[in-house]
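Q: Entry one of two.
A:
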Amino acid sequence: MKKAIILILFLVGFTTIYAQDQTTKTDTREKIQRARIREGKNSGELTKAERARLRAEQRSIRRTERRAKADGMVTANEQAKLNRKQNRASRDIRRAKHNNKKAN
């Protein structure tokens, strides 16, 4: 009985680690996008409303990533969805930074 419990705990831990390894590219892109938003704030290129919208978009990406990892396996469809959301977020950051609106 103890061996079965230990085996189950090991497998659960392993699948969690495996799911985290599957999204390293996603995590890296999230960090870069957060830095771009912070840079836009510091330079005055992003208004307060734009920053709020971009941060909400980043939260949505993190929520999608957590859901994808929840079962211990990130499928190709889930990874594609994350990639699409990050592509859209990156495009939105660029557009917001270059739309000639300045923070007060």
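Q: Entry two of two.
A:
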Amino acid sequence: MSIKQELIALAEQISGESNLSAADIASAIRLVAGKMPEEASATKAGLVKQGVAVADAAGSAPTAAEFNALLASLRGGGSIATAST
């Protein structure tokens, strides 16, 4: 199936109708594009990357280095901001 045919099929699924005009197809595609998740921020939910693995704490009280490794992983994955405000 060509990209054009895929887009037409997608628009028909979104609208629940067939034999759509080019304007209807474009409108349906814009609707879907407007709902695609974006990166998360402090004020809006969104996609975040998986952080790097962090070793379990060696003892009952995590060290500053262990805690900082966890913070770096969370920041790198986008789960928390990179700078305090």
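A: Comment on entry two: Residues 64-77 form the longest helix (14 residues). The chain is about 45% helix and 0% strand.
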